[in-house]
Amino acid sequence: MVGKIKILPSVISNKIAAGEVVGRPESVVKELIENSIDAAADEITLIISDAGKTLIHVIDNGTGMIEEDAALCFQRHSTSKIYIYEDLERISTLGFRGEALASIASVSQVELKTRTKDDDVGISVKVEGGEVQEISKTSCPSGTSISVKNLFYNTPGRRNFLKSDQTEFKHIYETFIRLAASNPDIAFKFVNNDNIIFDLKTDILYNRIKELFTEQFVNSLLPLEAENSLIKVYGYISKPGFAKKSKQEQYFFLNSRYFNSKNLNYAIYTGYDDLIEKGNYPSFFIYIELDPEKVDVNVHPSKLEVKFEDEGAVFGFLRNAVKDTLSKSDIIFNIGLDSPDSEGKGDGFTKSFDSSNTNISRDIKSPFSHESETKKIHSIFEASKIFQKSEDIPEDESTEQKNIFEHKKKSEAEAFNIWQYQNKYIMCQTETGLMIIDQHAAHERILYEKALTALETQAPFSQQLLVPIDIYLTKIDFQIAGSLSEELKNLGFNFTAKSDMIHLIGIPSDVRIGDESKIFQELIDQFKEYELKLNLEKRDNLAKSYACKGAIKTGDKLNREEMTNLIDALFITKMPYVCPHGRPTIIRITTEELDKRFSRT
């Protein structure tokens, strides 16, 4: 009886392997450019025709190959990247498996030209369908040139599965962006059907991103940098106001290798906390430097997945880096009035962010470094408050000197114009324009952070009621109040519970007398709504609910002292620029924008 199991010929096994490595023209582009990067090239050119179906040509000025290596490189599992098993545990190159060139050559017609700097002549190798057709001497520059023609010519079924040229080009374009963004120290050129798409010179990271995208896009970014003895993270994250409905422009790089990670994506997202609304996503370019032995990149043939030795630690480090970057940045909604003759909506508003960060690493070379206007405004608030305190006038001064001191303080206070508009917004005149503060959103931010502190420290401050209040709840609401008993008491609600009745003895200091029963019921109602819609963690839900229902309302009239105190309290919060739900607390209209509107430019 004859056995049924046979060893497949290399031609067939290589075509099978090509199914894992070479899925479409983009896969070829990725593998070839990664080889050029591994060869220490600082100039790489990509030329494609018909979205890579007809031609993919990659030229570099790297180390090149001697004749022996050029002849071997198309053999399966031939590689210069690893030699022993231990090398797999400390991979520092983009390629390492030795499968790419064999797989590519098995489904296309390939010509390789290569020369080292020490050789006078180069080597040419022609391969068709995985079979070497010719090896000869040739004249060529130092480095390597590989042209891949007629991809999948011998596997028509695979070729028929390719998408339209537009779709295949889009995949190549995205891969080129990833490789160029992760290697700003390499000059890249990208030519499609004789049209130059990119001609990138070596540059700093910020300028490389600007070349790949737009100046408007990079102006929406904040620089990020953090490191400890084990890990270094740097790059850029988008300002909250530029979050998008789709997860575009989200890039992770590990030791210059692009990779995907849903878990780390979530770390970035949670780092924004309440700064972006649910359903929106930030853009980011995050570069991670980590000991290769602490991560496994040999997870999937596409090499787009990695496995960290301690992913939880990386998750926490990234999230904290994002939080720290945002907390150090002054983020104010800047309202620009469209000029009447501008294209589109002449009477509309365009929303952007103004940001500053005084703790930017010089290595990142970011333009975002100017003094925070909010700090200037805060100092004016302080001058305004000083005038309100008569005890600040020196006691040992003469009447004339006291009058001079009082006049000076009054001038400083009155120079800071502040008024309430429609019992809804607080309007402030600044050096550069008009600052508008949403009184409800601002008070929400203040109460939210106070509530979180009270819940975390478990050090409640409750003002006792002269006359306790009985609050009757539905059975479900009574159960919720019981499950939140400890947290509610940490907020300052001092009560006892019996049957379906809450016997309220004390309330938080921020709850207005007369609103106790209403606020307590609304707090429970809001907690239920957030739990149903947002799936928030219990303490965060309670803090948001309390802030929402306990805050100053639209329609509440405020005097100057109340407005000043509100803004003063807002400025000392950790994130004064948005309410707990991601809405802005402050917007600004610059004098320049107003002048444009009135044609005074």
Overview of the structural elements:
The protein is of the alpha+beta class and 601 residues long. It folds into 3 domains: 10-202, Heat Shock Protein 90; 206-334, Ribosomal Protein S5, domain 2, CATH 3.30.230.10; 417-429 and 437-588, MutL, C-terminal domain, regulatory subdomain (Ribosomal Protein S8, Chain: A, domain 1, 2-Layer Sandwich). It contains 19 helices and 24 strands. The strands form 5 sheets. Strands 5-4-3-6-2-1-7-8 form an 8-stranded mixed β-sheet. It has a 6-stranded mixed β-sheet with strand order 17-16-24-20-19-18. A hairpin with a 2-residue loop joins β7 and β8. α1 (10-21) crosses α4. The longest helix is centred in the C-terminal third of the chain and has 19 residues, at 439-457. The N and C termini lie far apart (95 Å). The model is unreliable at 15-19, 81-89, 337-373 and 383-393 (pLDDT under 50).
Structure summarized in a few sentences:
The chain is an alpha+beta fold and 601 residues long. It is built from 19 helices and 24 strands. The strands form five sheets. It has an eight-stranded mixed sheet with strand order 5-4-3-6-2-1-7-8.
Could you give me the name of the CATH homologous superfamily of the largest domain? Histidine kinase-like ATPase, C-terminal domain
| Spatial separation of the terminal alpha carbons | 95 Å
Total number of helical segments?
Answer: 19
Beta strands, count:
24
Percentage of residues in DSSP E strands: 15-25%
Overall structural class, as computed from helix and strand content, comes to: alpha+beta
What is the CATH architecture annotation of the largest domain? Answer: 2-Layer Sandwich
Mean pLDDT across residues? 81
- Give the fraction of residues assigned to helices: 25-40%
Largest sheet: 8 strands, mixed
Rounded Rg: 32 Å
Q: List the strand order in the largest sheet.
A: 5-4-3-6-2-1-7-8
The CATH topology assignment of the largest domain is: Heat Shock Protein 90
The shape, in one word, is elongated
